[in-house]
Amino acid sequence: MAQQCKHLAQVRAVNPKTPDGCEECLETGDEWVHLRLCLECVHVGCCDDSLNRHATKHFHKTKHPVMRSFEPGEDWGFCYVDELMFEPAPQPS
Prior knowledge:
The protein is an alpha+beta fold. 16% of the residues lie in helices and 18% in strands. The protein has one domain (8-86): Zinc/RING finger domain, C3HC4 (zinc finger) (Herpes Virus-1, 2-Layer Sandwich), CATH 3.30.40. The protein has a five-stranded antiparallel beta sheet with strand order 2-1-3-4-5. The radius of gyration is 12 Å and the shape is globular.
C-alpha cells in the first residue's frame, strides 16, 4: 500500500450525474446499501455491500481511482489504486 495517494490531481468537479442514487441501479430498479461518487467523472455507484457493486465496477471499467462517500453526513474518500482512505474527502482543486 502506498504512503501517499498519487491520484489526487485527477479529482474534478463533484456535481453528481444521478443525485437520486446509483446510476445503473436506477435504470434496472435494483436497490443499494450506500452510494459512492467518482471524483473524476461524477458517476454515482453503489458500494461493495450492495448486490451490484457498481462503484467498484466503474473503477475497473474506467480506471478512475478516487471516489468519495455520497451519503449524507459522511466526508471520506478512497483511492482504489493506492488503497488509501481520506478523511475529509479530497476536494476539487
